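Can't attach files on this board, so I'm pasting raw text. These are the components:
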Amino acid sequence: MRKWLAHLVLIAIYLFFLLPLYWVVAMSFMTNQQILTYPPQFAFSPTLANYKALVLGQLGGGVGTLQVDYLHNFVNSLIVSCGAVGLSLVAGIPAAYALARFRFRGADNWAFTLLSFRFAPALLILIPLLQIYQSVGLYNTYWGLILAYQLITLPFIVWIVRGYFEDVSPELEFAARLDGYGWWRSFWHVSLPLVKPGVAAAALLAFIYAWNNFIFALVLGSSDVQPVTVATLSFMTASGIQYGVIAAALVISVVPILLLAVYAQRFLVRGLSMGAIKG
Amino acid sequence: MPRVRLEHLVKSYGRVRAVDDLCLEVEDREFFVLYGPSGAGKTTTLKLIAGAEHPDSGEVHIGDRRVDLLEPDARNVAMTFESYSLYPHYSVYDNIAFPLRAPGRRMSRAEIDERVRWAARLLGIEHVLGHKPAEISQGQKQRTALARAIVRPADVYLFDEPLSHVDAKVRHYMRGELHRMSTMLNNTIIYVTHDYVEALSLGDRVGVLDHGRLHQVGTPREVYYAPRDLFVALSFGQPEMNILEGTLTAAGGRLRVETALGTTHQLATGEPLPTAGTEVWVGLRPQDLQLGDLGAGTAFEAEVLVFEPLGTHGVLRARANGQVLNVLVPPNASFEPGSRVLLDYPEDALYLFDRESQLNILHPRITTPQGARDGGAKA
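---
Top answer:
Structure tokens for the assembled complex are below.
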């Protein structure tokens, strides 16, 4: 009886979360007409027109065609997200190590400042940031976005990886020092391999958040550098909202993250449960 | 020239002086044991030698080099840690090979392989070379840690409590192994332990450490039979030395000891001894107390409290004149609690410690009939 109830609840939860997903995927294979039919149709003849429009960059509207280079935006997303995570790893892993290993003045303040980027609203800094970017020439550049994205990705890397470094005994590093390895080599051969799961988890999470970001890219760049999240907006045309195309764009944009998450989910679970949430 | 020389080393953690003005010389190819209770500063001393900690003041010399300002990887010191500190992501083989692959060493793959297998064979862990540290037993981990230390030439080998986490059964066997290994290694070893049996059995010399200070340095015989002070005397032996109150009095130009057992002794000595009237601690080792009357007039009656037959020996706890004593007796004896026994001891078994300074004031001067007791505490 209890088991039945549990199953029932689970099914309800699955429906709640999976139905929208299903609906998006289904929409991506429908025409706008089919989508807007009420009551919604679950049986329909699928069409690839939406995907075709995205790949070809030709968006058929009521009044002529609209040029949209969605694939370019997709590449932008890859460049900016990978770049942001990459930079965060390069800067964040040493920072995490320092915070875990050394007691220095202002260490905790520094770490919390970093974390505060995660709970301060982005709008708070966007306008000044835009002005700064325009005056120093970072506006509408990949580097500009990658730098702004550090506000999203760096705290993840530093906080999660720090917990991992704290779990690595300093004695291990010292053992490596005695075995004849300099500081840097001890770090490279001993400490770093041991925090690999944490780095993987943090990088994955940071990547997802970077990929999903909308507001930074919307304000700090034009369509030259804008990622898929912003590009999807352009399918709300004057002649109507292209629900089908938007759905197809969503499906395409979800693919890389889905692949990554499936590949790295064991790191993710271990990384989150073991690194960040410690004692 | 001594291989390792510590000069007035001081190391504090906050208000605690872990190592307090430590001076020590360890000879070349010596097996030196640093012995003391936990918190005595043994591991800190090793860390100061190895370079994990920097002394507040004082110097560390290895060979003819002063090393306390050098980085750990420049000191050419090998060390094992109490927690083993094996690299969990490497196999046992790679753990042992790790120091040989260090950047400065430039060893060929074949050479490395040969040395790793030599060390593994010496410690009997050849069959687990392919395993990760998480997959092997405590004893094997400990051997791996030892192998990683001895696999390479070093100026001094530091072993920090290598047997403390090993099963009691394996421990005796491993002590023998360590003996064998140190002979093979034929090099300077500083070995830290809180187990007095290890200290006595392994060391060429033993340094007794407490609160960061050396109480005595000497051969196992010296520290056991001629303890410099009460602390050293109580540190060796299980059960530990019985300690009773006593008084020194002068009688006709000679000194007499009155013990809390009610026994008195004329001290047969022409040497100058502390002034009469000195309050002393009288020490008697459990194995020096015997059942029956030895005929010297020092026998006394005691009431049996507890008897523990322990297989190889028995421990009898008895009370005499209000004093509780531990006595080592044959294991096959039987004693009823509450019954009375006659106990005695040979006079030369007495230790006397000044109650103020805690120093041993008598025993080093007693000549031993069998030559078993080496005289004179060396500092």
